[in-house]
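Sanity check

After download, print the first record. It should look like this:
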Amino acid sequence: MTSRATIRHATEEDVPTILQLINELAAYEKASHEVLATPSTLLSTLSFPSNPGKGYAKTLLVIDPDGHCAGMALYFNNYSTWRASPGIYLEDLFIRPDYRKRGYGKMLLGELARETLVIGGKRLEWSVLKWNQPSLEFYESLGAVRMEEWVGMRVERDGLEKLSEFGRGF
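Expected structure tokens:
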């Protein structure tokens, strides 16, 4: 036990906790029916300190002074062509409701900012649901800027199969 919260990278042993946090976040966003993650898929797609070259995303966990997991930040590297530099994209930041207003979200974002600087990155980016006003206000209080001129785009499921046909040429 420590006198303050700590942040560490998740290990393979943390996968059940990561999945639980993903499900809690999905419930908060009223999208539990969309979660397809399983312990097996997380083990095969996340990167861990024991094998940092494997996987596509990393997870930071914030651990409270009593040793309980209070939340996570799941992220991956991206790249800016205009800046010719790497960056970090924050896929999910989630603090369990009982742990909010303790500075844990700020701690996780601070650690991500440090990791961005360590890799020579120029920006840390993420998306926020338009209806999530508490999160929008929190991020703006930390200096984050809304990217109003950008629209998020996505292709998934059957759309990926259809779009992949264009890769075969004409």
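If your output differs, re-run the checksum step. Summary of this record's structure: The first strand starts at residue 6 and ends at 9.
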